Structures are given as C-alpha cells and as structure tokens.
Amino acid sequence: MYQINNEKFGQFLAEVRKEKQMTQKDLADKLFVSDKTVSKWERGNSMPNVTLLIPIADILGITVTELLQGEKLKENKTLNSDVVETLVVNSLDLSLRDTIHQRKKNWIFAFLISIGVVVIEAILLTVSGISIEQMGDSLYISLLMLLFASWLCIFAKELLPTYYDTNKVNFVSQGIFRIHMAGLSFNNANWGYVLTVFRVFTLGTAILYPIICYISFLVGGISLWNTVKHPAIIILLIGMLVTTYIVGKKHE
C-alpha cells in the first residue's frame, strides 16, 4: 500500500522548488502562506492542507500524484486509480491530523493562560480586602471549572469513533468524561463544535466568576454576593447547555 512519507514529501518539494529557482518565500507568496509554513513542509514537520495540493503542483510544474509520492514519474509510467485514490485519502488524513494537532495546542495554551488569569484575580481579590472565606465559593467554582477545562483542553479526543457517524448516539464517554444529552445525536460533524462550547464556557466561567464576586462586593458587599453567587452559576450552566443544544443541532 502506498503511504505518504512526510520527509520524502518535504525533500521532493524542496528539490523541485530549487529546480524552479524559487526561494521558500517565493513559493509562500504565491500560495498566500508564510515562508515558515513552507519550511515546515520541507522539513517534514507538517503537510499542506489538501486544498493547497493542486496550486503547489501547478506552481512547480508537476502533478499532484508526483507531489504526494515524493518523486517524478517516468513518462511511460502511470498509476492506477486505486493508488491515486489512496494517496489522496492519505493526504486528507495527514492534513486533518495537522489541523487537529494545532487546534489542541491552541486550547492547551488557552487553558494555561486561564490559570494565570484566575491566579491574578485571586490575588487582586485578596488585596482589595476580601478574605479567603468570603471569596471561597468564587475560588471553588473557578478551580472546579479549571479542572473540567483541563480534561476538555488536554485529554478530550477531537474525533469520535466512526460508529457515531452511522448511528444516532446521544452520549459520549471518554475516560472520566461523561455526557448524555437527550434529543441530540453526537457525530464528527458536530463534536468539534460541542467541544468548543464546553471549553469556552468552562474557561470563561473560571475567569468570569471571580469578576462577578468582586463587582458584587464592590456594589453591595457580602450580602449582595451571597444573593447572586448561586443564581450566577446556574445561569452560566444553563447558558452552556442551551448553547450546546443549539450548536449541536445546527451541525448534526
């Protein structure tokens, strides 16, 4: 079976580019990407998005099949349709993996930033004269949301098993994570969006709740905070569930 080799692809891309007397920046400018992106392709660290394969081949004067195989075909050599189809499918898989990997890195970064923000908020609340006991609920909710977010951002799988795409399944179980939503079927068309909703709401709640705490103390003191702290978290959670249903149904 023909498999796409990242390093072979990158070496071939660099060779053909140099034959055309083009720099990485020249190729990047024609494709509307950065020269760092082209450098990653040539070093075998990533693959181009599948939508760029035809433009790259056209610019370099080769075929998409030659590009994916990492070598020029002899004039009398042709590949059967099965081999070509396998190469194209594999290129889709590699492109998807690169996209998923980058998306995961972005969410891990967002999670780390959120931890820093919550720590700063806790310090500011303390400096402003609010005791640990008074802000206890705020910190507890923020830490709980960060705990959920840590799993969602770091460990949650970006793709569901294929049987989700052929069956109507309204629950997902991954490690310690369990979700069951009656009336909403999960599949790979909507799972990425659902994960995004959960991530945004857990990180957002972790950051927003201490702010609500501070404003409450600023406006009405401990009595106002005791009045709004439970309704606030209920409203945020209901908002997450409603948004999940809307987004999940839209892309179902």
UniProtKB/TrEMBL annotation:
The chain crosses the membrane at residues 107-132, 138-156, 200-225, 231-248. Keywords: DNA-binding, Membrane, Plasmid, Transmembrane, Transmembrane helix. The keyword Lyase does not apply. Residues 13-67 form the HTH cro/C1-type domain. GO terms for molecular function: DNA binding. SMART domains: HTH_XRE. Pfam families: HTH_3. It comes from the Bacteria. InterPro entries: Cro/C1-type_HTH, Lambda_DNA-bd_dom_sf. PANTHER family: DNA-BIDING PHAGE PROTEIN (PTHR46558:SF4), TRACRIPTIONAL REGULATORY PROTEIN-RELATED-RELATED (PTHR46558). This is HTH cro/C1-type domain-containing protein. It comes from Vescimonas fastidiosa.
